[in-house]
Sequence to fold (230 residues):
Amino acid sequence: MNTVLLDFNTRAKEVNDYFIFLESLEKQTTKLAFLDTPGKYKIKSIDPELAKTLKANGFLLLYNLVESTMRNAIEAIFEEFKNKAISFDQLKPEIKLIVLQNLKNRSPKKLYLTINQLSTDIITATFDREKLFSGNVDARLIKEIAEKYGFSYQTDFAKTKNGQNLVVIKSNRNDLAHGIKSFEEVGRDKTIEELLKIKEEALEYLRQILENIRDDLDNEEYLELPTVNP
Fold:
């Protein structure tokens, strides 16, 4: 999880840098320079239509961060199982169900080539990171994932709004990706101040979810509790 957190921080900085640049263009503290005549530049404010496109592009950056972060986090959970040689029998029932569902979706011929010790290899051999998400990650889905894997989905509401803006990010990203709305349409609906607020709350929500997953792994909450005899 430390690697996942480092990757998240790197990607979050890229997003922050983009929004800082976008805000400076909107407030005209940064302007564009165009070559007017040889050796001479003409300073211009950003075109309003271009500003809308740049704001809409912010949703693409944010959603990319959301989905990649959750994909990396789930992969880290399975890496934990592999590194600690956790067997299927050791897992809590909820995660056993995940492994069995993964098994259902994999080709037996491919699994046969990758499994040596069935009780341990079946966990990671059935995992396919590419099939985890497809433009569908929001706070509701993250809550469902948390309930299945057993980590907490609770965050500081004052800072994160419990990820409620992730559905806004997802919806706008999908509208752009599928051509339902133009960049101009998406960009005109949000001010730069609203975008900055969405960005800050989304980043903090993801950060706290990652910390919850790290705590879960550190405490080995994925293991089935031993049966206590009466």
